[in-house]
Automatic annotation (TrEMBL):
Segments for region (Disordered): 344-364
Protein name: Uncharacterized protein
Species assigned in the record: Caenorhabditis remanei (Caenorhabditis vulgaris)
Length: 372
């Protein structure tokens, strides 16, 4: 039976949205009728499937918006065939999407005391010819005196960063304690210390400290400048800042974004104040269900996005989601079959003592409940 080369309205709209990338639009034209085609998935890899935005709020430092592509959804489904892996860009898009929700769900008691920043805010994880040029330029675009709250009145500042494909969080406690002021009156911060707690992967922590932390300090100086005249701020005294390092377990790179989300959830959705960071981190390390919780975050994110697409009015997104789901299931079954054949050839048992199939990994349709 000859292949149907006619265009549906949905296919025409997909071609139109791909028109800014003629090579991909041409590839999609060629393979649009195929099922389980890696070429088709490549052609629509950056097709926007979900968009969102967030306003600044009581504990959210800046408004921002983002989007997720079909490749991001495939990564959440763990469809890693034919070279698909979690890139830095994919991880950042996935993190941005979920962190919005995490910030909004912070315990109300602590919201007035906390200010959470956008992931990699002001390009603090990027390189440039001048070390702080991107931080300065983006700060001027995002923050101003009229709309930006004085961050030094907060007790906690949270700077999440995704650097070298690892998640890091810098928690600043009592930032106002690091400021020199014009007046000689005793400050309410004098009896306290400004502490920067850097949480993340041990192997790359020193590189993070060299690259990102100076940019966080620069950002604090820029914020200080907004209110220097009104509040009598003179300078950020870095000698008053105590730096502490805390380390997280090293997971596979495809799981690290969800590990970072899990960390942020445990820090913000808890009745522990952020100053009890060691208690929070100990609970994560000693909880036998942490790995299940991290995988449950991935599944919940995937489910919420797929439901939003299916219940929405965007037919091209629905069409491509169906293509991606069917292709993912096809390749997943093929991979499982190859694994079984290799295991049988190697003499590995396929059932337990009661004849039940053994499984080496969670299946995408398994749901796990996140428990405290």
């Amino acid at each position: 039976m000859p292949l149907d080369r006619s265009y549906t309205d949905v296919e025409k709209e997909i071609v139109r949205r791909l028109s800014s990338k003629p090579d991909l639009a041409g590839l999609y034209n060629t393979v649009r009728k195929f099922e389980n085609s890696q070429s088709l998935l490549h052609a629509v890899a950056e097709f926007v499937m979900h968009e969102y935005q967030c306003a600044s709020g009581k504990n959210i430092a800046q408004p921002y918006e983002g989007m997720l592509t079909i490749s991001d959804i495939r990564c959440m489904r763990q469809d890693f065939e034919e070279g698909l892996n979690m890139s830095q860009q994919m991880a950042e898009r996935i993190l941005l999407f979920r962190l919005v929700e995490v910030y909004e769900r912070q315990i109300e008691t602590f919201k007035p005391k906390t200010l959470c920043f956008k992931l990699n805010t002001c390009a603090m994880n990027e390189t440039s010819s001048s070390p702080f040029s991107k931080v300065e330029s983006q700060f001027e675009e995002i923050f101003d005196f009229e709309e930006t709250e004085d961050i030094f009145t907060k007790k906690y500042l949270l700077f999440p960063n995704y650097y070298e494909r690892y998640g890091y969080v810098t928690l600043v406690i009592n930032p106002g304690a690091a400021i020199k002021k014009k007046n000689k009156k005793k400050s309410r911060y004098n009896s306290k210390e400004c502490v920067m707690v850097h949480i993340g992967n041990r192997d790359f922590m020193m590189r993070y400290m060299e690259r990102v932390v100076p940019r966080i300090e620069k950002l604090l100086e820029l914020f200080l400048g907004l209110y220097a005249e009104e509040k009598g701020y003179l300078e950020l005294d870095k000698s008053r800042i105590i730096n502490l390092l805390r380390y997280t377990d090293t997971l596979h790179r495809n799981d690290r974004p969800y590990q970072m989300i899990h960390l942020m959830e445990k820090m913000l959705e808890t009745h522990h104040p952020l100053s009890d960071f060691d208690t929070i981190l100990k609970e994560i390390k000693t909880n036998s269900r942490t790995a299940f919780q991290i995988d449950a975050i991935r599944f919940q994110m995937l489910s919420s996005i797929e439901i939003a697409i299916k219940e929405g009015d965007d037919e091209p997104r629905k069409h491509l989601l169906g293509k991606a789901q069917r292709a993912g299931e096809f390749y997943r079954q093929r991979r499982a079959q190859l694994e079984r054949e290799e295991a049988i050839a190697a003499g590995v048992p396929q059932t337990d003592s009661e004849g039940r199939p053994l499984s080496k990994r969670f299946k995408p349709n398994e749901v796990f409940t996140i428990e405290d």
